[in-house]
Amino acid sequence: MNVLTKNDSVFEASSSCPGCGSILGLKFLLQSYENLENTVLVTSPGSISSMGKAGLHVNFVNSRNPAATARGLAKANPDLNVVVYAGDGFTNTIASSLLAAKENFLYVCHNSSILSRRDFAKILGFRTAYTATASVAYYEDFISKLKKSQQKTGFKFIELFAPCPVTMNYDPSNTVEIGRIATETGLWPLYEIENALTITKIPPRIEPVQRYMETLRITMTEEEQKALQDYVTKNWKSLNEGKIV
Description:
- An 8-stranded mixed beta sheet has the order 2-1-3-4-6-5-7-8, sandwiched between helices.
- The chain has helices at about 20-30, 65-75, 90-95, 95-100, 120-125, 140-150, 165-170, 175-185, 210-215, 220-240; strands spanning about 40-45, 60, 80-85, 105-110, 130-135, 155-160, 190-195, 195-200.
- It is globular.
- It contains 10 helices and 8 strands.
- β7 and β8 (about 195-200) form a beta hairpin.
- It is about 35% helix and about 15% strand.
């Protein structure tokens, strides 16, 4: 069995694109565990295919339904640390498996789609032992939520903003900056849900969504931009009241 140690690089033998947010998120995820010897990482096809087994020193299973696989593993061996790392596309296709999950495992959905995404964290809401949103731009916040989820028993879910320089068409060196702007404009709020909803990162002020659009050179009509701004404003107000809509 190959095990990731603190001195190993999760990027070893990786052919992923420079600035890949999903690989950065995976690195943080694995580094959050003190001991990986008893951990199984379940992935969906394409999530970390560019790394190959040579670059990931931890037991892992690739599955077309990572949620169902994780549920089976957790039920069969309660002593295992079962962790899923899958993209938003695959997560969308297996949403029913997530809604029915009660077993003890962590599901991390790496998501680069803000403007057209399905808000999984909101859908699951208070159904889980722990639900949170995170971003690769806020390392300490993400690690804190990973550590907290590891102390919970039951189904845990974290939705991670992991920008993609290829699909989002920005310079690979700006991955962290894109993540920060997404949170500063309220497009990707950072919160956690335990017994109550708590915002974990409050910007000094919520910047206009136009800043995010201009950074990524996204063209929207005035009407579309107003509708998006209205949604963000309403959503932020709701979160501050401890509600999800």
